Amino acid sequence: MKRVIQFILPIQRRLKHSDDIRDAFHLAHLLKLGILPEGYIYPKKERPVRDLLRKRLFLMKHKTSHILSFKNMVSRSLGIQISSNEVKRLFEEDVEKLFQQEHLILAGKAHIATIRFLKEKITGIEKAILKKAVLRDEYSNLLTVPGVGKILALTIMLETGDIRRFPEVGNYVSYCRCVRSNRTSNGKSKGEGNSKNGNKYLSWAFVEAANFAVRSYLFVRRYYQKKTARTNSIVAIKAVSHKLARASYYVIKNQEVFQPKKAFG
């Protein structure tokens, strides 16, 4: 009887107390009203391939960190600049020709050996993914988006899931972390928050596509240069990734090819 009386109490009073019974009743009440936010449960069948793509990204980040560390070591010790592509072509024997000190040679060999090892593992993962995963029909037109290849298209497909769970393009680009997070009051900024809300893997995928697109497509490069003149390169790349994310939403939802004029004017 006491428990029944507790359920009849106003919601405001129940919210001041928290236990399993009150929380369950409150959630059931929100569900009955249709205002309970529901999360998306990713299909169990596709999780292993998606997680393998995430592991590839993890290894890619480590490989990039070793490349940058080796370039920094060359710059500090020899006073010269070396490109990332040149570092990728080096073998452990080549390090002995660059440095004279024993400790620098050991450090350089460790970097080169790790870079080549990670490259081999990443290539193996990519082959396994391309052998197992296939772009679904509604995602096949992603390959027409500037900067998006097979691996990025698969990443976008597996991280996005069912496109119908995003009612508007704004919901999708927000999920991709392509929208600023700010708090305002009376027209004044009160700071930023919740910037990490969304999918970090989709955010990386569209930034990666933006970097490729700027190098390979003239109309994208023009837009990037215009943005860079007003702000800086980081903000400009993020603006390009925002454009690509919006375009990808319509490409997936409407099952149409990428249209440069609609995306970049």
Helix/strand layout:
Elements: H1 2-8, H2 11-14, H3 20-33, H4 47-78, H5 84-88, H6 92-98, H7 102-132, H8 150-160, H9 169-175, E1 184-185, E2 188-189, H10 200-216, H11 218-230, H12 233-254, H13 260-264
Antiparallel strand pairs: 1-2
Helix pairs in contact: 4-7, 4-8, 6-7, 8-10, 9-12, 10-11, 10-12, 11-12
Please give the count of helices.
Answer: 13
Q: What is the CA-based Rg, rounded?
A: 25 Å
- Number of strand segments: 2
Domain tally: 3
Report the span from N to C terminus: 68 Å
- The helix fraction, in percent, is 55-70%
Low-confidence spans: 1-12
- Give me the side-by-side strand order of the main sheet: 1-2
Pattern of helices and strands: HHHHHHHHHEEHHHH
What composes the largest sheet?
2 strands, antiparallel
The proportion of strand residues reads under 5%
Task: Write down the overall geometry.
Answer: globular
Structural class: mainly alpha
What is the typical, i.e. mean, pLDDT?
88
Describe it for me?
This protein is mainly alpha-helical and 265 residues long. The chain folds into three domains: 2-33, no CATH class; 45-132; 137-182 and 194-264, no CATH class. The chain contains 13 helices and two strands. It has helices at residues 2-8, 11-14, 20-33, 47-78, 84-88, 92-98, 102-132, 150-160, 169-175, 200-216, 218-230, 233-254, 260-264, and strands at 184-185, 188-189. The protein has a two-stranded antiparallel sheet with strand order 1-2. α4 packs antiparallel against α7 and α8 (150-160) runs antiparallel to α10. Mean pLDDT is 88; it is low at 1-12.
